[in-house]
Amino acid sequence: MIKEYKTISEVAGPLMLVKSVENVTYDELGEIILPNGEKRLCKVLEINGNDAMVQLFEGAAGINLKDSAVRFLGHGTELAVSPEMLGRVFDGMGRPADGGPEIIPEKKLDINGLAMNPAARDYPAEFIQTGVSAIDGLNTLVRGQKLPIFSGSGMPHANLAAQIARQAKVRGDDAGNFAVVFAAIGITYEEADFFASDFRRTGAIDRTVMFMNLANDPAVERIATPRMALTAAEYLAFDLGMHVLVILTDITNYAEALREVSAARKEVPGRRGYPGYMYTDLATMYERAGRKRDMPGSITMIPILTMPEDDKTHPIPDLTGYITEGQIILSRELYRKGLMPPIDVLPSLSRLKDKGIGEGKTREDHADTMNQLFAAYARGKECLELMTILGEAALTEVDLMYAKFSQEFEKQYVSQGYETDRTIEDTLNLGWELLKLLPKSELKRIKDKYIEKYLG
Questions:
Q1: Nearest to residue 142, comparing CAs of 374, 323, 331, 299?
Q2: Peptide bond preceding 341: is omega within 30 degrees of 0, i.e. cis?
Q3: Could you give phi then psi for residue 336, rounded to 5 degrees?
């Protein structure tokens, strides 16, 4: 039998102290019953003897200490899951936000889930096509990988997120068994409307589960939203055997909410005021992606974060970089030039790209062309810098070819817009077209048999 406690002794901001409680556990969900009959959710943050510190999901306005009551529900925050979730939009707490009916659940799952046992993990080895050349060709995404996008304030990461969610697919026999779980964390009404209308316009909504947490929603809901998304992804991947791509935007808003809750609890702050356990907290989310041995499904994750002041050493991108397998970096310089999407391929990296490319996965020439394009673009950038400092006359004929190559590479290969969906074959063929700008003698990273086959 659920007990009701009328022992609320204090409310301070988003926190409330309930005294003389029994058998209440950490992270347990509770209901606050106001004098007018209204119910609000809360969550147990701390137990000290018989006192429980709870966090309010909504504001404290209207809570009368004397006449309000609390009852604890005996379980943590749960998500009702079912195959009917596909094509639906939910709020940050998993409630329908599209005007549709409630989900009839097959089961209810605790959103905190369990970390994947490292011994049960299978190595990521299959290619996921995003349709974006700068990712597919040079920083390939592999099934089961965690590949974050590092952006900056005011940059078009929302457009790139929508494009990847729309275009991403797996190839081969599993092509029809693919789903996207999209979680928007701490976004504005305008951004929420952009994502929802974009997915509906293109029909991508039919294979997508969306979770929308708005900027004016409580901080504790912001902390729950990515876990809601990952719980839905685990159900689709490991219960229904689907290949799931999880896109989380924006992790910076999540970390800010974590700092807000930590400050309210008067915890000792770590670097830049963020809690000392932020690495552990982020890892409990990121490490839920992957593949399991002898199970057909997989979870691939693209977390998107805006680096405060474009600083890669800031705690959020810094810790994310430690946990994940690479990063895609958006460049403000390319954005100012009008290149869309402004992906800076030189500092970007996918640590697992070599495992997901080659014959039978993409194409036999992929690894060689990738290395050659990367090297040629890097040298071309150096030549352009020299040209700026010393003038065009100081460059050799070959250097000028490299300079032209790097400009054309940015215009044609990187800047493809947000509506162009390129297959991996289109991307590789475009790479060969660009390599024709260089003499054959300069293609030292490509085997002769591929030069004969693809350059003629």
A1: 299
A2: yes
A3: -65, -30
Distance CA 306, CA 157 (A): 8
* Structure-token match 């046992």, residue found: 117
CA 342 – CA 47 distance, rounded (Å)? 48
Q: 160: which residues sit within 8 A by CB, 6+ positions away?
A: 132, 149, 304, 330, 341, 343, 418
CB 352 within 8 A of CB 121: no
Confidence of residue 77 (pLDDT cuts 50, 70, 90): confident
Whether 167 contacts 422, CB under 8 Å: no
pLDDT tens digits for 45-70? 889 999 999 988 877 777 888 889 99
Strands (E), 126-241: 127-129, 141-142, 149-152, 169-170, 178-187, 208-214
**255 three-class SS:** helix
Strand (E) positions, 339-380? 349-350
pLDDT in tens, 238-267: 999 999 999 999 899 999 999 988 887 788
Band of pLDDT at residue 12, cut at 50, 70 and 90 = confident
pLDDT of residue 435: 95
Residue 46, beta-bridge partner list: 53
Residue 11: predicted pLDDT: 87
**Residue 217 confidence (pLDDT):** 86
Q: Give the pTM.
A: 0.91
**Going by C-beta distance under 8 Å and a sequence separation of 6 or more, which residues neighbour residue 406?**
376, 377, 379, 380, 381, 383, 384
Local confidence band at 172 (pLDDT 50, 70, 90 cut-offs): confident
Coil, strand or helix at 208: strand
310: left (phi over 0), alpha (psi -120 to 50) or beta: left
Q: Count other Cβ atoms within 10 Å, centred on residue 12.
A: 11
Q: Are 135 and 328 in contact (CB under 8 A)?
A: yes
* Confidence (pLDDT) at 65: 86
Residue found under tokens 């190839």:
171
Is 205 within 8 Å of 199 (Cβ atoms)?
yes
The 10 Å Cβ neighbour count of residue 95 is 10
